[in-house]
Amino acid sequence: MLAIIGGTGLTRLKNLKITHRQVIRTPYGEPSGALTFGEINDHHVVFIARHGYGHTIPPHEINYRANIWALAEQQVSRIVSVCTVGGIREDLAPGMLVLPDQLIDYTYGRRHTFFEGGDKPVTHSDFTEPYCPKLRRRILQAAKTSRQTLIESGVYAATQGPRLETAAEINRIARDGGDMVGMTGMPEAALARESGLSYAAIAVVSNWAAGRGNSLHKVDLAAAETIFQAAIEHVHRMLEALVKVEGV
Ligand code: HPA
Question: Strand pairing partners for 122?
Fold first, then answer.
């Protein structure tokens, strides 16, 4: 089954015919909310709102481990994360959709692994390609069939939040090779990998990152919200096409 994790502005999937909701308890505490089960075009899908259904959980307080554990327990095999980002690279303008292929993690103090505790053997997971190439190909195919523009690669920089970055921090991230910046991409991607789940992200560029474009002196968050709401329509169409792609 395909799972969709909705980020800021995506607390419900409007094309999802809901069948039931389920509260899951995990050894890691409470997930962000109940899992919502349903169908998109007759395909089973499970949805969870990353920040909670009332959008009350900030990026650094999300229980990423509980969310991923809860999904893994439901026989989920693939996760598509929908997230918002600030654009750094010149072509990643507000309103664009991007399919990141790499990431850099600048977060700290988050519970970022399942592999801890004295009773467990030391385990390292390969993370060379943090996003599942096969799932990325399927998302690209879905973008094509639904005629949605999707930029096919980019480096996602995960920052701690909840504050936005300084212009100098964005310059540093750009020098490091970051193309877009968001606050929730990690440790979610790594935990999915540790759980053996395919994981990919569709990033919606809601604003120019600090110090870039029209965010030269300030990031206009109200404008970012409007841009996101318009762009999310394209994500809905892409997801409708994705569930039809064989194997998802
Ligand atoms: N920075 C970090 N996270 C974000 C941004 C940003 O500019 N825009 C949307 N999520």
Answer: none
What is the whole-number distance in angstroms between the Cα of residue 19 and the centre of ligand 1?
Answer: 33
pLDDT for 98 beyond 90: yes
Helix (H) or strand (E) holding 182: strand 180-182
Is 210's pLDDT higher than 90?
Answer: yes
* Mutation to probe ligand 1, out of 81, 83, 84, 170 (largest number of atoms < 8 A from CB): 84
Ligand 1 binding site (Cβ under 6 Å of any ligand atom): 84-86, 159, 164-165, 181-183, 206-207, 209, 219
Q: Show the domains of the chain with their CATH numbers.
A: 2-246 (3.40.50.1580)
- Tell me phi and psi for residue 31, to 5 degrees: -65, 175
pLDDT at 15: 84
SS3 226: helix
The pair of three-digit structure tokens given for residue 112, joined into one six-digit string? 């970022």
**Helix, strand or coil, per DSSP, at residue 28:** coil
Residue nearest to atom 7 of ligand 1 (CA): 86
Tell me how far CA of residue 200 lies from CA of 4, 71, 109, 127, 171, in angstroms: 10, 15, 23, 13, 26
pLDDT of amino acid 122: 87
39-54 pLDDT, tens digit per residue, is 998 899 999 999 998 8
Surface-to-core class of residue 48, CB atoms within 10 Å of its CB (0-12 exposed, 13-18 middle, 19+ buried): buried
Tell me which amino acid residue 172 is.
R
